[in-house]
Amino acid sequence: MKAIKKYSAIVSALITPTAFAQIDVSLEYLNWTADTNKLAYVVNDLSGSVIPADIIEGNIQSIEGDSDDGARISASWKSDDNGEVTLRYTDFSSVSEDSLTGTDLFGIRYHSDQSVDIGEPFEGSASSKLEFDYSSFDLEYSYSLEFGNSGQIKPFVGISYVEIEQQLTSNYIEDTDIVNVKEQADTDAFGLRFGADASWSLTDTVNLMARASITVYTADLSGGMLETEVDDDPVVTNVDTKFDETGSMTDTAVSLGIGWDFYERDNLALSTALVYEVHSINGAAGFARFPDDVNDATILLGESDINLNGFSLSISGSF
Questions:
Q1: pTM here?
Q2: What does pLDDT average to over the chain?
Q3: Buried b (16+ CB within 10 A) or exposed e, 77-104
Q4: Cβ within 8 Å of residue 261, ≥6 positions away
Q5: pLDDT higher for 38 or 23?
């Protein structure tokens, strides 16, 4: 009976709010840009030979990432012994587009044997659109250490699950000939994170904050491409290729910002922060590529380096 009462007391202490010295909830608005490599889709103003197997020279047209909106929500439980557990969810999506019209174009997203006027430049238009979706779940444990009269550092360790979906749609039009290329690159990854948060009080209510972390993931990489060609016959030709691999991925992240504690009364404190954040992701699934100009049927799944950067504006409550 004594043992039952003892364990009942422990469980009760763990599940009641009084087990924590403080609970924090934060909502963030994100304005990020997703920059992905290898998103060239057409060459224009050709100045070199255009005979197949020769070098093509000209101006490469690529998609550049546009800034878009996202959101992040987090909840933290702080204990009396300076420990803290944080659960965080991040969601970000963006759409970037580019197009070009010209008399001397050479498409580079399609297979050479499924192209408009095979291996030759064409007069018409080319366009490409990238749809990018990023979401992550993070669970971290940190321990707060004081340094100096106004500084605090919190080393942390955690786990992270991330999903990255990229879809690239390119169109090449010459008169009644149309080539449509849809490419997909998906990453599902789970990994370990290490890093530290730091803050310095500039005044009683204003503080400077910084964060650095590295996450090492084991990733499932998948993708594919579907080429559809319609000529003036009309004839439709589909080339459907799919890939599935396992690899490793890293995410190196740093941020710097400033916070303001603007309200405190009884057991409630409110604050806001403006932060600039950069994520350098290496090893995510990339789009298909053609590794040589000899074996036309050789297609490989590429890797993608992704740079997420931008500002976040948060409002947080502590009680």
A1: 0.85
A2: 84
A3: bbeeeeebbbebebebebebebebebee
A4: 204, 205, 206, 207, 269, 270, 271
A5: 23
